[in-house]
Amino acid sequence: MKLKDQEKQARIRQVTIDIVSEQGIAGVKMASVAKRAEVVPSTLYTYYKNKETLIVSTFTYIAQQMTEELHLLFEPVQPFRKLLWNLFEQAIDYKLKHHKEDIFFKMFIVSPYFDKATPETKRALETAARQLMEFGKEQMIIKAETPDMVLIAALDGIIDKLVDYHYKNMLTLDEAIIQAGFDVLWDAVT
């Protein structure tokens, strides 16, 4: 693909993320995406057959970026607590640096479009966390009888709420708050 085409697709993707973070998925209209991305509508339809393919493709891109950043954390040579801390801290950092992408992600997974995402994309999202939880169980540190997805829900829930409260000015995400959040998570899973 030519560089110019990649740049157009990146603009289209970013505009889609911006619109979803401002108006929700329902706010995405192909004509408004084309206009804001400064491409003619026919160009948009060259890359994306319809709104569904645009939304699902944007989600796939975000999921790939997120998993690439978070997969770098899993090094089973470190103690489990350190690995969990790294994932916790990096996930918060990712959500703060990529706030609009995080909003898009949250809206997508509760939308009917989520069913259109590939099974591989869905699995990739949980792979690092699932590997980490299995490692914790093997080390007999976390509750072996608790399903991985329940443990992941505890991890995601605490991280999401801390970031949400930060953006709503209900708390400042400083080191003390992040540590307190991690301590609550640790108590929940061990």
UniProtKB/TrEMBL annotation:
Where's the DNA-binding part?
29-48
Keyword check for Nucleus, yes or no: no
Claim: DNA-binding is one of the keywords in the record: yes
Please give the InterPro entries that the UniProt record associates with this protein: Homeodomain-like_sf (IPR009057), HTH-type_Tx_Regulator (IPR050624), HTH_TetR (IPR001647)
Q: Which Pfam families match?
A: TetR_N (PF00440)
GO function terms (MF aspect): DNA binding
Where are the bilayer-spanning segments? Answer: none
Q: Where is the HTH tetR-type domain?
A: 6-66
Report keywords, A-Z.
Answer: DNA-binding
Name assigned to this protein: Transcriptional regulator, TetR family protein
Q: Which organism is it from?
A: Microscilla marina ATCC 23134
Per the UniProt record, the lineage of the source organism begins with:
Bacteria, Pseudomonadati, Bacteroidota, Cytophagia, Cytophagales
